[in-house]
Amino acid sequence: MAEGNPNSKTRQHILDVAKILLSETNKDALSVAVLCERAHIAPSTFYYYFTSFADCLAEADRQRYEDLVGAFEERIAAIERALDRGDPQLFYATVREQMTAAWSAGRADARYSLIRTFINIFDNKSQAARFRSQLDAQFDRWLAAAELAHRRGWTVDGATGEMVVLMFWAASVGQFILPVATRRTMAPTAVATFFMEILTGAVGPESSGEPESEPEVQRATPSAVATARAGEES
Amino acid sequence: MAEGNPNSKTRQHILDVAKILLSETNKDALSVAVLCERAHIAPSTFYYYFTSFADCLAEADRQRYEDLVGAFEERIAAIERALDRGDPQLFYATVREQMTAAWSAGRADARYSLIRTFINIFDNKSQAARFRSQLDAQFDRWLAAAELAHRRGWTVDGATGEMVVLMFWAASVGQFILPVATRRTMAPTAVATFFMEILTGAVGPESSGEPESEPEVQRATPSAVATARAGEES
Asked: Are A75 and A98 in contact (CB under 8 A)?
């Protein structure tokens, strides 16, 4: 039961490698040997820090879960700060930035890392219940933010704004289904532009006039998307 | 090795129950005992039809995969038939119908069935490669259909049409992340209306005037979504 210093850098390095392996493949395919090879450590080093492989994987899973929840939390908190300041330019810039970051997280990895993390969480009953309620609470904050922005005249009709928010999040998680060949057209900034246009009504009849500092969104025609895409491809 | 008649109804019943169990939970949690109890059969019946539990699960997985590919195939084929007839009303009605069906398939199940099927497929290398290429080929057909409809003046700018198609599919798969509490606002018909409005430009400045037979889409304001949602809730 000899567990080395839990704050050790080596220990966290082992956990980081375990997190990468968990994002790439099924647990069944993993072993202490595979982990040690990838982490460039000896099995004796592994057993200095962990009592069992199962313990190590469980802790790595927990960390991936916390990383995911933390990232979601930071995103909505940034939007709320922008709303607090009552500054539409900052609000648009922040929403765009968070959308781009969220989309990047969903596509970052060709091996379905994000989706695998979700499945692992949902397979653990106590984690699943806690995660579900944290996720739902964050969606409530997103929807409240969309509603508040609408009341200030910064975004389209509240019902449409709600739909855009939910669709963006669902798509950012489900994007792994999209064809490899069209990945370029799904560049994070192009996707953010597309959703920003719907959210701000730039493609709608009641344009709320997003400020000049956001030129891509300001264009009142769908061709802004084409322009943004062309920019991505260069 | 005594395998009963492969066309037997009992054999398919066992496979159907196995497919349900696979959609609900991890393989690790399944056993012949669990399967027999759920299927209301004796273990001896199971072993009359299958040589092993692993064989049964592998066949059930294969069937789920074929069901999924077949459903995708039928959807794009229906859209292509509507385009072939050169009838915009039929085209709009078919796209809406297929969107509603696709969204229903993604949400049908609270236990992440669809997403679990994807992960199982992607974990099997040979299945994953075949599935990926089938999926990519079907997306090519969707994008070609969107482009053709655009050239006929039935839908918005081709680039936006492409983005709407891809976003709809990504969201339909990723919708499992959405909060339980807002599921009602995400009713399949409301979601289809939302995407149809973007696709036909009903929320845009260049409305292509979807025919009268599609009243929900025809409204030129985002509040059509609110109306559709209110309808869902009754």
From this structure: yes
**A220 interaction partners in chain B (CB closer than 8 Å):** 205
Identify whether the C-beta of residue B88 lies closer than 8 Å to the C-beta of residue B154.
yes
Cβ–Cβ gap B112/A132 under 8 Å = no
Whether residue B178 and residue A166 make contact (CB cut-off 8 A), yes or no, is yes
Looking at chain A, which residue has its C-alpha nearest residue B181?
A136
Which pLDDT band holds residue B3 (cuts at 50, 70, 90)?
low
Mean of pLDDT values over A36-43:
96
Point out the residue among A157, A172, A181 whose CB comes nearest to the CB of B174: A172
Owner of token pair 């798969």: B173
Task: Give which of B155, B193, B196, B203 to mutate to test A binding, by max A Cβ within 10 Å.
Answer: B203
Please give the pLDDT value at position B99. 92
> A172 and B170: CB-CB below 8 Å?
yes
* Contact (CB, 8 A) for A175 and A106: yes
Domain boundaries, chain B: 62-108+135-233
Cα atoms in the Cβ-side hemisphere of radius 13 Å centred on A43: 6
Least confident of A85-94, A111-120, B8-17: A111-120
Topology (CATH) of A1-51: Arc Repressor Mutant, subunit A (1.10.10)
Under 8 Å CB-to-CB from A3, ≥6 apart: which residues?
A49, A50, A51
- Asked if the A63-233 domain carries CATH number 1.10.357, the reply is yes
pLDDT tens, A194-232? Answer: 999 988 887 543 333 443 333 333 333 333 333 333 333
Residue B209's nearest CA partner among B96, B97, B88, B90 is: B88
Can you give the pLDDT at residue A78? 92
Chains A and B: how many Cβ contacts under 8 Å? Answer: 170
Which of the residues B103, B117, B177 would you substitute to probe the A interface, choosing the one with the greatest number of A C-beta atoms within 10 Å?
A: B177
Residue of chain B whose Cα is closest to the Cα of A228: B159
Does the model's ipTM exceed the 0.85 cut? no
Q: Which of A25, A118, A123, A163 to mutate to probe the B interface, most B CBs <10 Å?
A: A163
Residue A184 CA: distances (Å) to CA of A120, A178, A229, A231: 29, 11, 8, 11
Cα gap B9→B13, rounded to integer Å: 6
